[in-house]
Amino acid sequence: MEETATEAQEQMHGCPVIMSRGQKVLLVDRKDYLNVMKALVADTFDMLVDLTGVDYLAMPGRKPGAGVTAERFEVVVNLLSIQRRERLRVRVQVPELDPAIASLFDVHPGAEAHERETFDRVGSVVDGHPDLTRILMPEDWQGHPLRKDYDPGRIPVQFKGANA
Amino acid sequence: MTIAEERMDDATDEPTGDAPAAVEPGPRSRTTSALTGEGRQELSSRAGMGAKELLREVGAVLRMSESEAAALADIESDPDEDQTMIINMGPQHPSTHGVLRLMLELQGETVLRCKPIIGYLHTGMEKTGEQLTYMQGGTNVTRMDYLSPFNNELVFSMAVEKLLGIDGDIPERAVWMRMFLSELNRISSHLLFLATNGMDIGAVSMMLYGWREREEVLRFFQKVTGLRMNHNFIRPGGLAADLPAGWRDDVLDILDMLPGRLEEYEILMNGQPIWRERLQGVGVITAREALALGTSGPILRSTGVAWDLRRDMPYLHYDEVEFDVVIGTHGDAYDRFAIRLNEIRESMRIVHQILDRMPKGDFRVQNKKVTPPPRARIDESMEALIHHFKIFTEGFKVPEGEVYVGIESPRGEIGCYIVSDGSANPYRIHMRAPSFVNVQAMPHMMRGGMVADAVAIISSVDPVLGEVDR
């Protein structure tokens, strides 16, 4: 996202690799997502550390880098290779009109809770997830709180003796 | 209804189609009329669950072959629902360390399945973090894992510094002070674990001892930061203040007191057959399962995987101090207890080395854009006044970018992912909480165990619900 980060440094499984503040980021197309994640496991990136989502609604005109078209949502997966002592971040663009992404459950069973959380927070649907329910919010909650068009809301505060 | 929710309806209809033709629809499908239609978070009864789903729940996580998983699913898939019972444990239960709710499916006293249901302590801290400036962010993140606040502040500060590009400029004294506080925090957190672990198993005297020693460490924190918990002391750019006069003697007092006390604990706990019987062989998890589930910290190390970010991906100056990574061999609750007990000793070793090497100098980076000027300068310099005013009203701006930083907290890898849009507030802040992931490993530790062991297992995972729910 910095000037220096927009150029693809190399390719990995046909996806461009960029550097973000010295950290390796792989920009993966949504349709290749599951296959690339499987290939990365074979590359010893076999531990899924974190999976989360970002809503980029309030950042129009952003450039993910390496000529990738920006979409409203982004799913961010942080992988770790214990063997190589290396981290790798995978970022996938997810369009607003069809916010669905494949589940990593069969590749990384530990992704289950993270994917539920991502669904709960930003509302990206996870295809093939065994139990896609809300995890932090109550089950009858409406909306996805970490979307940028979700109003945090205010509770009016009453002050004693104020005549405003 | 949005498109996402419509898709969800389709998705929730699917699994019930696989279920054996039940006379009544399972609880899962009954709630599709709920407001958002995602279905219930509760553990569904076996009748409402397809054989395929059960197989997936068991097989995929345990990385079994299909035939092994099928064999396991066969034992459990009893169509007669009366034989099993689903009960709630928590959220109001003294051994659930806050508000963790577990739904257990029992056959007699044996736990067949378990599902942790979380969110009872959810306060939207990630959303709150977007409203606060980077300057104020520390007060927010320190409340997540309230038993190791320094580690929360540290990982947040390191992420912000990396975004600012000043991560190499932090003065030496600040780096050593950060390590110092982080290790003392590990000691206090593990002491609390020993206390609560004792209490959960029924060794109530251990609770008093652990709490007593932890209080000594917290008293030192209070002297340094002014607060026992939620310090907001480690900040982007350095620390809030220097160490107070006499800090060295206070720490030496703690370091002199602890070894004898730890030996007492060993006599009290390890020397006691009841204690060993309650923990040994309970809640076993294999290295393969632990890695597949993404667990970290003492849970991963109890399975024999020597993975400690302080040694394997060093941050601060952990590559310059000597310490051992404590690992277990059985992956049971006893190993997790022993690992934490011995990690206190390793942390004390590190603190001793820090005391020898603590350099003099600045405790925060002298960058006017990030660090508020000293109070005395405000009276004499117009620029200092402006900088002070700017930092405390609108905060400092952080260049556009995104970054993930992970460090070793007492509970495992705590990570901070920040996206900046170039303003003074984080565009998105996400914390990778170790307890959140570790709690998800509980069903695999409990499978096939006894109900009474469930308490020992929750305790051995040492979850902090504040960071699970954030």
Task: Tell me about this structure.
Chain A has two helices and eight strands, in the order βββαββββαβ. Chain A has 164 residues and is of the alpha/beta class. In chain A, the strands form two sheets. Chain A has a six-stranded mixed sheet. A two-stranded parallel ribbon of chain A has the order 7-8. In chain A, strand 2 and strand 3 form a beta hairpin. The radius of gyration of chain A is 18 Å and the shape is globular. Chain A starts with 9 loop residues before the first strand and ends in a 37-residue tail after the last strand. Chain B is mainly α. Chain B is globular and about 80 Å long.
Percent of residues in helices of chain B: 40-55%
The helix/strand order of chain A is EEEHEEEEHE
**Biggest sheet of chain B, in brief?**
3 strands, antiparallel
Cα end-to-end separation of chain B: 27 Å
Beta-strand fraction estimate of chain A = 25-35%
Greatest interface and its participating residue counts = A-B, 58 and 63 residues
- Number of domains in the coordinates of chain B? 2
The proportion of strand residues of chain B reads 5-15%
How would the blueprint of this fold be written?
The complex is a heterodimer of chains A (164) and B (470).
Chain A: E1 10-12, E2 15-20, E3 23-28, H1 33-42, E4 47-55, E5 73-81, E6 86-94, E7 100-102, H2 111-122, E8 125-127
Parallel strand pairs in A: 3-6, 7-8
Antiparallel strand pairs in A: 1-2, 2-3, 4-5, 5-6
Chain B: H1 3-18, H2 27-30, H3 51-62, H4 66-76, E1 85-89, E2 101-107, E3 110-117, H5 125-131, H6 134-141, H7 149-164, H8 172-201, H9 204-225, E4 234-235, E5 238-239, H10 247-270, H11 273-279, H12 287-292, H13 298-302, H14 309-312, H15 333-357, H16 375-380, H17 382-393, E6 401-409, E7 412-420, E8 428-432, H18 434-439, H19 442-446, H20 451-461, H21 465-469
Antiparallel strand pairs in B: 1-2, 2-3, 4-5, 6-7, 7-8
Helix pairs in contact in B: 3-4, 6-7, 7-8, 8-9, 8-15, 8-20, 9-10, 10-15, 15-20
